[in-house]
C-alpha cells in the first residue's frame, strides 16, 4: 500500500512554502478556519536606487514592463541622520498621523511594509485609500515592500504571540533586513532605516534589537520645521481605554415599550412630536411639543437615539443640569466621520472621539456662561412612534470603498451620503460598488439596530452619473417625492376624444352651454410670465354708467374636463400640484388639458369660471357674481408687454384702457391690504437664464418686480377671498380653505434680539400689522438691501400656510396672517393646483350649477386631500428651489466672481453669507479663512466673531462683506456646490 | 476578507506571493491504490483530488456522465463514465453536495469529454471505463485538477491514449467591471482569485496547442481573452511536463524495485 503522505524533505521548494492560517467569523456568526498558501521568494526588490543586486531579478509584468525603483539614492537627512534615511512607519503611525505623511515639507522615501498596509485596510478604509494614493504619487516616493512574501523577512507567528506583536515583529524584521541589505550596496553614504511607531513596547524592542526607531513626536522634532508639524500629531489614545469601550455590544439605549410610551405621554411625563435636525449641526435636533412654547433641544448621537429627521418620536426631558444652549458651532457629518470604516460597525463606541470632542466644546461653553437664562431645556429620544423613512437619493462615499470592492462583484459595505444633509450616512451592502461609484443612486433605510452606529439600507436604483442634468433632475424629483412618470393610459382615456380639435360647441343648445354665460364679447386678456403655456387666468374690466367698474376674473374651467373620482381626478389628487423646475415642468394634468383645452389661450373660445365684481373707484366691492362662462381672450400678454402697453400713452385702445383701469384698482386694493396689516415678505428669488438651444445655464438674474405682476396678484387674491367666503357660506363644514397661522412670538425672539443688539431697532410682533410696520422701519440708510435681508430672515420665522377643511378649525383660526385676510382659499390656478380644482367644484355646487358631488362634501376625504396637497405643495416648492440652486451652481461653474454679501447667521466657528445677486447663501468656516485655521473669539451677546492669528477679521451679524463666489466640487462627496471665500469686510 | 487585487500593481505580486505566470506547487503521485486498475493523487496548491480508474470492463448499470458508446455499451467504442464525489469537508464550510448537483454533473461530463478525446476508446468496444474522482480539498482550479488527476490515473491503468490531457486555469488581474486594458493575465488561480476575477479553464493535448477543454464561466472583455488563453495553454505545457515527470519517476522506481520486468529497459523510458 503506497503512502500518500509525502515527505517535505524531498520537495526542493518546501522552504519557500508557508501557509497563513487564521480563524475568522462570518456575519452570521459562523467561525471559519481559513488556510492560505504563501509563496516566499527572494526576487522582491528593495526598490532603492542605490541597490545594484535587486534590479537584476526585478519582476516585470506580462507586457514586459518592470516596476521602477522609487527610493532615492540620496534621501533627505535629519539632525540625527545626516547621511539620509528611509522611513518605515508601523500601522499606528499611519492611523494617528496620516496628515503628516501627506505633508510636502517632509516624509519622503517611505517604505510601507505590506503587513502595515493590510492592517491599515482592516482598521480604516479611507486612510488606506489615502495611503494607496500616496504610493502612486511619484514625488513622495512611497514604496510598498512585500515583507510577507520575501523569504528573509517573513516571520511565522510564535506560540502564544498575539497577532499585533507578530506584526510589530514583522515590521522590525523588515527594518533590520533593509539596513543589512543597504549596507551591502557599498554606497558612500548608506541611508539609515528608521522605524516610526507610537507603540512604546515596539520602540523598546526595537532599541533592544539595535534598530533605529522613534516615536512620531521624537522624529518630527528632528525635522527642520518640526514645531509646525508637531501640532499635527494627535494625542495618543490609551489602548486599554479603547478596548474597554468596545466591550459594550449595543451602542444606543433601548427604546421604551409602546405601552410605556403611551402612558408616559398621557401622564405628561413624556412628550410626543416630530423630530427635526438642525441644518447646520447634524448632532443637534429639536422637537416641538404641545406642552412647551419653545422647542426642546436634543443634543448628541445618544440622545438622538437613532431618530431621523421627520420621525414621530417620544422624548423625555433631561434634568436641568444637562440643559444647554443651542449650538453656535457648525458640525458637519462629512468632516467628522470622514475616516470611518463601514465594515467595522461593531468596533467603536457610538460617539466617536472626534464627535465627543466637538460636543465637549459645547458643554464647556455652556458651563462657562454665567447667565443661566440662555440654557434651553434638552431632551432625549426614548422611542419612535412612526418612522418617516422614505427613499433617499445620495451617492456612495468614495473614501469608504475598498479597492477590491471597486473591482469585484463581491458584496461590500459602503456608506451612502444622502443629498439631504439632515439624513445620516446610510450603510449599504452592495455587489456593484464599481458600477455605482460616481452615480446618483436611490436607497432606502431598512433598519437601525442598537448595535449599529449608522442605519442600514439597501440599493434601489441607479439614476445616472453625478452632475448630469438628467440624473440630478430625477434625483430632485425623487428626493421631493414628485410623481414624474408619464400619465398612465387609464388617465389619458379620460381626455376628450376630439383631442386638440376640441372646440366650444357653436350650437347654444348643446349641453355644454347649459347655465353658461356668453362672455365672448368682453375685452378679456391674460397676463403671465413669458412663455407661459398653462394660462389659468384672464381679466377684463369696463367702466359702468354709474361710475363704478365691472371687473372680471376668468379662471380656466378645469372641473368641466376633470370629473370627480375618475382616473384623471385620482391621479391629479395624488400629484396635487404641478412642479416647476428650471428646465422642466411636471404637470398635474395631462398636456392636452393643461396647455390647450383648459388654457385660456388668446383668439379661441374657452370654457371658464368667472368671478365678476362691481367695484367702486375706491375698489370697494359693491356686488360679486360667480358664473360658468365662455370667453374669448383677445390677447395673451407677458408682464413686460403689458407694462409697456400701460406706460405707452399713445395706446388708447379698449384693451389697454381696461388694463389701466385694472392697474389703478389694483393699487388701491394693495393699499387696503397693507393697511389691514398684510406683510410684504421676501425671499431671495433669482432666475436662471438658459442658452436657448442647449438649455445650459449661462447666467443668473434677480427677478424684477413689475406693476403688472402685482396687478394680476391683487385680483387673484380678491377672487380667492371672494370665492372662499362663498364656499364657506355654502359649506360651513367642508369648504376647502387656506390658512396661515400667526407665528408664535418666540419664533421672532432671536431676530428681535439681533436687531436690537446690532442696529438698535425694535421688532414688534403683536400683530401682523405691527410686524409689517416695524419691518418697514428696519432700514439702513446706507444699505438698501438691509430691509430685504430682514424681510428674508423674518420670512423664515413664519409658519407655513396650509390647506384645511373648514370644519376642522374655528372661524378665527381661518385667518391668513401674511395676507391679513379673514378667510382665504385657492381658486385661481386649477390647472396646476388640485386645491383650486376642489374649490371650483364646491363653488359650482354652491351656485347650483351642478349637484354636489359626494367627494366634495365628505369631510374625511377632504381632510386626506388637504394633508396630501400640503405635503406636495411644500415639496414642489423645495424641488423648485433646489433646481434653481443646482442651475445657479452650474451657471457659476468655472467662473469666479466677487460679489457683495450679507452675514445672516453667525457661529463660533463660521458664518453664513447671503449673496443677493445669486440668491444663494453659503457657509464660510474659520478654516476657510486661511491656510492655518485662525483662532477665533465668539461673542454670542453681540453676535461678533473676531479672529486672530493667521488672519485677523471681525465679522458681525448683518455686516456687508465682499466674497468671492466660485463653484467647487467636493472630492469626497462628489457634489458641486457654491463656495464662498471672504475677500474683505466693509 | 475580500481579495485586494489593487496591490498587484504595486509589486506585481499576487495574493499568495506568486508572479503572474507562476503555477502553484503541483504535487502528484500515481498508483496510490494497488488494488485499483489505475489510481492517482494530485495536489495543485491546496486543491487535492484523488482518482481511481476501473476498467476497461464490462458495462454495468449506467450512471454518471458517460461519453462515447451508446446505451448499454452496445457501441464499438468504450464508454467513459466519470463520477465525481466532492467531500463535505473539502471547502471551508462543511457542506453536503448531493449526487444530482448540477455543477458536479457538468464537471463530470467535461472530464469525460476530455478523456474520451484522448483515450483510444475504439480499442475496447462494448466496454466501460469508470473514472472515480474524489475531491478532498478545494482551493480553486478544481476542474483542472480533476482532469490532470484523471489523466494520471488513466496512464496508470494502462489505457492507450494519444497524449496527456493537461489542464490549468488562467485569469486576469482585474475584474470585468474594472475594464482595465493593461491587466496582466494570470496563471493557475486559487480560490480567492477565482471568486473575484475572470477566469477560464483550459486543457490541451500533450505538447501540442490543441485545446480539448475550454470553459469560461465569467464575464471578461474579449480583448483580454487572447492573452488569458495564451497563458493558459502555456501553463498546460508546464503541467504536462510535471505530470510526465511524475509518471517517469514512478516508472523508474517500479523498474528499480522490480515490479516491472527489466526487459522493458530503463532507457526506453527516457
Automatic annotation (TrEMBL), chain A:
Compartments where found: Cytoplasm; Nucleus, Nucleolus
Predominant place of localization: cytoplasm
One Pfam assignment: Rrp44_S1
Cellular component aspect of the GO annotation: cytoplasmic exosome (RNase complex); nuclear exosome (RNase complex); nucleolus
Record domain PIN: where: 85-204
Top-rank lineage group of the source organism: Eukaryota
Keyword rRNA processing included in the entry's annotation: yes
The entry's keywords: Cytoplasm, Endonuclease, Exonuclease, Exosome, Hydrolase, Nuclease, Nucleus, RNA-binding, rRNA processing
The UniProt record lists the keyword Ribosomal protein: no
One Gene Ontology term from the biological process aspect of the record: CUT catabolic process
Residue span, RNB domain: 516-849
GO molecular function, one term: endonuclease activity
Required cofactor(s): Mg(2+)
Protein family: Belongs to the RNR ribonuclease family.
Protein name: Chromosome disjunction protein 3
Automatic annotation (TrEMBL), chain B:
Biological process terms in GO annotation: nuclear mRNA surveillance; poly(A)-dependent snoRNA 3'-end processing; rRNA catabolic process; U4 snRNA 3'-end processing
Every Exoribonuclease phosphorolytic domain range: 22-160, 163-233
GO cellular component: cytoplasmic exosome (RNase complex); nuclear exosome (RNase complex); nucleolus
GO molecular function: RNA binding
PANTHER family documented for this protein: EXOSOME COMPLEX COMPONENT, EXOSOME COMPLEX COMPONENT RRP41
Family that this chain belongs to: Belongs to the RNase PH family.
Protein name listed in UniProt: 3' exoribonuclease family, domain 1-domain-containing protein
Source organism of the structure: Podospora fimiseda
Lineage per the UniProt record: Eukaryota, Fungi, Dikarya, Ascomycota, Pezizomycotina
